[in-house]
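Morning. Coffee machine broken again, so started the prediction first thing and wrote up yesterday's gels while waiting. Chain of 308 residues, entered below exactly as on the submission form.
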Amino acid sequence: MIDRTRSEDFLRYLASQRLSSPHTIKAYGSDLATLADFLDSAAVPAWAEFQRPHLEAWIGALRESGLSVRSVQRHLSSVRRFYDWLARSNEAGHHPANGYQLKRVRQDLPQVLDVDLMKQLLDAPPPEEARAALLWTRDRAILELFYSSGLRLAELGQVRLTDIDLRDALVTVVGKGRKTRVLPVGRMARQAIADWLHVRPEFVRADGENWLFLSQQGRRLSERSIQARLVHQAERVGLDRRLYPHLLRHSFASHLLESSHDLRAVQELLGHSDIRATQIYTHLDFQHLASVYDQAHPRARKGKDDPT
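Came back before lunch.
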């Protein structure tokens, strides 16, 4: 039987040394547990005995179970990271995933809400019923902050009162890898948050939670509840598509990039360590970039004798 304490040690290493997020650690744990189950069924006694034929058989089993190529790639990435860690103590044997490549996945441009739909959502009138109107005040502040600052769901869910500075128009969030970002908050978002803070005391209970967004029970509004409230408000205002947090983040990045054409600035605001993630994550206006290149680069300017 595979020694699963080693994979547990690896997860603790990710948490304590790499400062990985709970979501990332959970994903690694799930992937490695799936691999351990497979190796046990294949009578592979130790991690060091995991060979390339076993890897190919495991990937085949994952595909037969209905996983997408993208999901299988994530599993493969988990294996690589785990065996890199095992190799530090000479426990990896022959690294089974070294040089192994799946077929590349076509990366579609993300969906976005256009500006008119965003306006329809954010400028919707409040419900007539008093309690529903209170909840809309909170939910509108959530929507505005998502769109204003391009936050991830986990980042927004962890914002405390002390993280928001309406005077200086800033919000401090902790993103992937426990990296802190200080982000601007737009005028409309600041107004929506101020409106929420005015009614927030009605949600506070005796234990005095310090989270910016509270549930009706006075506790931190959970990520699942935030997702559900977005769906509810989209349906209420008649939005013709499903609304989810990353759609607002996509829209933030896309609209900002279309207006500014400043890829590096958008990268910083999104908290991407690799600019390639930003290029994939937004609707990059390649036609505009090509025009800038043609006009600015000394060896690209077209003259009257240009053969084209």
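Strands lie at 164-165, 170-174, 180-184. Going to sketch it on the whiteboard this afternoon.
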